[in-house]
Amino acid sequence: MKFPNKSLKFLEQYLNISSPTGYEHEGQKVWMNYIKSFVDKIEVDHYGTCYGIINPEANFKVVIEAHADEISWYVNYITDDGLIYVIRNGGSDQTIAPSKVVHIHGEKGVVKGVFGWPAIHTRSANQNEPVPKIENIFIDCGATTKQEVLDLGIDVGCMITYPDEFFEMNDRYFVCRALDNRMGGFMIAEVSRLLKENKKKLPFGLYITNSVQEEVGLYGADMIADTIKPNIAIVTDVTHDTTTPMIEKKKEGDQKCGKGPVIFFAPSIHHTIRELIVETAKNKKIPYQRAAASRATGTDTDAFAHSNGGVPSALISLPLRYMHTTVEMVSKEDVGNVIQLIYETLLKIKPTMKLKYH
């Protein structure tokens, strides 16, 4: 799939803006502004989950969903010398923090800082190398006292994000922080664009849903599932490209960027919806991969599947390299194929289809 310029401009703007868990509103504004011409109605819940609706009057409801939040840090403690210690907001990786530039979202605006780390010269070869831990990583914002930090508008509870921005690599990959899972938000937005531009009429209500707070417990999906009460949910998220070094395929499975969307098998995945997706991929000659999840998928699929007495749900994942780092990578071809697979699957869904297990 070749992406129109307007789609790529939206993607770059959407990825470059900060959207940490609990503070997703700036990213959600960008997302809603893009999809508003493709849908009949837009709604926002109390915690910031946004959804565009096509055919809002329909009784039968189908959700396509991604999550909008990115991992980040909270200011947790400020020393008398003006150094800042942090706690996680989501699954932030302490091992990548040293020497990273950060944006501290203070009460007076954004303040730049850096995660400090002792120089290699000062680390004696006779002792074990220090390992980055939550207890020893710290941020230096150029202040020399706690009061100076407070005067900058920084206090306990302020959010900290990485500023790393979007770029394309070798005309093959999209690279940025927070592709997990704002790339999902991009993909479901593109599905709505294709439906509008191709003048497709759906026999059901479609809820294009960008949920909040996935990174801390699937909470946004849990709330919005109870609000929408869908009949079917198709969720998209990312999964690991397991072909890079130091990943055990026997544990993590065998998925690779460029080989197509990953269709998941797990207890929360409804057989009928999954089979429809697989059949669609085969009929439309869309490449796909398979993966299995024990007990839970760890994605918003679980929240939708277990809501409202049970909602038939399925998961289409995008292979991704270097998850929860600032250089997450996905294949442009895979992105196009996920969009196409969701789009084509929606065209096959009918309100009369049998959803009970047979």
Question: How would you describe the overall organization of this protein?
Answer:
The protein has nine helices and 17 strands. By secondary structure, the chain is an alpha+beta fold. It has two domains: 5-70 and 177-346, 3-Layer(aba) Sandwich (Aminopeptidase), CATH 3.40.630.10; 72-161, Beta Barrel (Elongation Factor Tu (Ef-tu), domain 3). The chain has an eight-stranded mixed beta sheet with strand order 1-2-12-3-13-16-14-15, sandwiched between helices. A six-stranded antiparallel beta barrel has the order 4-5-8-7-6-9. The chain has a three-stranded antiparallel beta sheet with strand order 10-11-17. β6 and β7 form a beta hairpin. α1 (5-16) packs antiparallel against α2. The two termini are 36 Å apart. 45% of the residues are buried. The model has no long low-confidence stretch (mean pLDDT 97).
Strand and helix map with partners:
Elements: H1 5-16, H2 25-35, E1 41-44, E2 50-54, E3 61-67, E4 72-78, E5 83-89, E6 101-106, E7 109-116, E8 138-140, H3 146-151, E9 159-161, E10 167-169, E11 173-176, H4 179-197, E12 205-211, H5 219-228, E13 232-240, H6 249-252, E14 262-265, H7 271-283, E15 289-292, H8 300-305, E16 313-320, E17 328-331, H9 332-346
Parallel strand pairs: 3-12, 3-13, 13-16, 14-15
Antiparallel strand pairs: 1-2, 2-12, 4-5, 4-9, 5-8, 6-7, 6-9, 7-8, 10-11, 11-17, 14-16
